[in-house]
Amino acid sequence: MRPRYFSFPALFILFLTLLACSGRGDDLRIYEQEKVMMGTIMKIKAVAPGNAEDSTRAAFEAAFGEMSELESELSEWQSTSAVSAVNREAGVKSVKVPDAVVTVTEKALEIATMTDGAFDVTFKPVGQLWNVKERTAPPPQDSIATALSLVDYRQIRLDRAKRTLYLTKKGMEIGFGGIAKGYAAWRAGEVLKKHDIRDFIINAGGDLYVEGKKGERFWTSGIKNPDQDNAKPVTTFNVIATCGVATSGDYENFFTWKSERYHHIIDLKTGYPAKGMKSSTVFSSDPAKADAYATAFFIMGYEKALAVVAEDPSVAFILIDSDNKVMRSPNLDQFIQEH
């Protein structure tokens, strides 16, 4: 099922809470704006002087413009995108792609290698088969086997010099839904910084990119209890370093069949929803990595996730397993300070 894209005027909200008051109009205030894109709600919140509404509005519009352009290049749901062209020509020929597609493909292939395919952007045939918003029962085993035969990141041919991308098997499809929002958030953050905004949160459908502070205080966030929406959070924390924060869980998109929950995070080694975890939250200096590894670590579990962190310390995590055990990577304190 294709995501629906909506078009309506974006809201630009000036929060009147003063973070510091000088009486000269340069007191710090929080500005927020949101738009629908990439199949979700993208929000930007930033701290800027009270007399900087016009320049902040311009910065936000530039940042949203950046994300909109990336959506037109990276979305597999837009027929005119480069990614859609690559999918149409799978098994036929290579396709010229823009720089953003090259960069995101490189990142995706690196993470696929690091996770032994737990994260794989060629997952789309399996993802479409397991459309949990539409399904009421698991798909047939032969359908799963057919879909899995089209999933293999090693069949992606990226020529960086020529800026071309080719999928070697007809019927293969790539989808950047597990990494594109993080990358778009990072690019939007770079735009904000060019406009001298250095204290912000970009919320890309629940995945965060955080920089700076809220006045003299750190930005704060938390991880909710996967089983109870209104329960006390598992943890809350200050974000003390520039980083992406992304969470994957089995508690929002699922169906139940014969008393068993079937969620949307598929273990590509089995073709069935991953077992053993409830929630995976990942922190990284690269928001695209946080986005992708949140999915991968949910599938891989604690020990394998820990091995990745040992090799790539730019990533940290908090995992909650099916027994509600909370597990943290040892480098977590470089990104957050828990309350």
From TrEMBL:
Q: Which residues cross the membrane?
A: none
Where it sits in the cell: the answer is: Cell inner membrane
Is the keyword Transferase in the record?
yes
Q: Which family does it belong to?
A: Belongs to the ApbE family.
Q: Which residues bind Mg(2+)?
A: 178, 291, 295
Task: Describe cofactor binding as the record notes it.
Answer: Magnesium. Can also use manganese.
Q: What does this protein do?
A: Flavin transferase that catalyzes the transfer of the FMN moiety of FAD and its covalent binding to the hydroxyl group of a threonine residue in a target flavoprotein.
E.C. no? 2.7.1.180
Catalyzes what?
L-threonyl-[protein] + FAD = FMN-L-threonyl-[protein] + AMP + H(+)
Alphabetical GO CC annotations of the entry are: plasma membrane
Which Pfam families does UniProt cross-reference here?
ApbE
Topology in the membrane? Answer: Lipid-anchor
Q: What is its main location?
A: membrane
User: What is the uppermost EC class here?
Assistant: transferase
Which cofactors, by name? Mg(2+); Mn(2+)
What is the protein's given name?
Answer: FAD:protein FMN transferase
* UniProt source species: Prosthecochloris aestuarii (strain DSM 271 / SK 413)
Q: Which UniProt keywords are listed?
A: Cell inner membrane, Cell membrane, FAD, Flavoprotein, Lipoprotein, Magnesium, Membrane, Metal-binding, Transferase
Tell whether DNA damage is among the UniProt keywords. no
- InterPro entries (alphabetical): ApbE (IPR024932), ApbE-like_sf (IPR003374)
Q: Which PROSITE patterns match?
A: PROKAR_LIPOPROTEIN
Q: A Gene Ontology MF term for this entry?
A: transferase activity
